[in-house]
Each structure stands twice: as C-alpha cells, then as structure tokens.
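Handout, section 4.2: multi-component inputs.
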Amino acid sequence: MKVQPIEAHEQNPVQMDGASGAKMRMLIGPAEQAKNFHMRHFSVEPGGYTPHHQHDYEHEIVVLKGSGVAKSEQGDREFSAGDIIWVPANEMHQFQNTGGDALEFICLIPAPMDCSK
Amino acid sequence: MKVQPIEAHEQNPVQMDGASGAKMRMLIGPAEQAKNFHMRHFSVEPGGYTPHHQHDYEHEIVVLKGSGVAKSEQGDREFSAGDIIWVPANEMHQFQNTGGDALEFICLIPAPMDCSK
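Output:
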C-alpha cells in the first residue's frame, strides 16, 4: 500500500496544444504498475483551460477545489468542488477555470488494455 | 457529459461482513456504461470501518474529508484528507475512521474486462 499527499507528487505544466495555465501530477500510474486505470491531478489557474478535444477513451473526474465551466456536446455546464463529471469516450470536452481561485480536479483514464495476458 | 454533485447519488449502507458504519454511493458505473473502471464514494462514521479483506483487483483512493488508519500488509498507515492511497491487487487492507468527524473517500475499482469485444 502507498499513502501520499497529492502535493508530494511531481507537478508539471500541461504542454498539449490548446491548454493554458494547467499543470498535472501523475498520482497513480506506470510507477505503481497500475494496469487498469491511471489517476491524475490537474490544477488550472484562473482564466486557464484544458484543451478542447476528444479521444477514444473516457474521463472520470472529481472536482476538489474551485469552479469552472465544462464545454460539452450538450452545451456549457457549470461545475464546482464536490461535483463528479463523466465524459464518455469520443465526446468533445474542455474544462475552463472561470472562478477567482485555482481549479483542482482528479481525472482518471483507462490504462492501455493488453488482452494477450 | 454528466455533471452531478456527490450528494445527488443514492447512498446505501455497506452490507458486507466485517464492515461497520459505512455507506456507499456509486458515482460512475454500470448506469453510465463505464466499461473500464467504476467510481464509488464511501462515508464512514467515527469508529466505523470497511472490511479487513483482500481481492484480486486494485483500489485507487482519494481521501476527501476526515482522517483514519489504513491497515496494510506493511503495518498501520495514518491518512487524512488530501491523501492518495494505492492498494495493489491481492493485498489485505482495511480503512478505519479514527477521527471525530465523518471520513469520506473516493474509491475506484476496475470494471469486469471483456476481451471478446
């Protein structure tokens, strides 16, 4: 078992095209040999955002601090700390910090699946 | 996309043998057709605990509120809000609320894998 505060994990800027003012921490992933899904932490400064994009895997999200707007295929959705967000595979999405404080959320993605093992 | 507060999800007592004072909410699971991993919310009252057990799948945990002790194969580990806990598959574990307030955490598990699809 591993028990560590979020802050103990290395934080790096999100370098993807279309992102601004966003940083990421890998919380549980390859280092733990987590074979089914990976847990990441995102911090987005006021006015910042993640890329407006889509991909063939889902997101499962827990909003920890702050507030913002999620752009979705069903329109803009406001969210704040304590909200759970489900983004199905292949849906366009973006998370914008529209509040005055840092936006922090946990975002999980599937790990690559290897059916040969 | 689905955006909902944790509290909007139905809460039920954890009925498993060895659990006491614990309640669960399914946040993202079969209802969302989440095929890779499922997100649950647990609330444990002061003095309560989850079962001391093991299983062939991992846990990825975010502690939201309160504090407690995790029994692990490496001994007892204190934890509190803001901690991330990784429990590898097949490791014995239990979460006890040793604080004076409700303990709340998010716990993710893999969904059944179907390699025929």
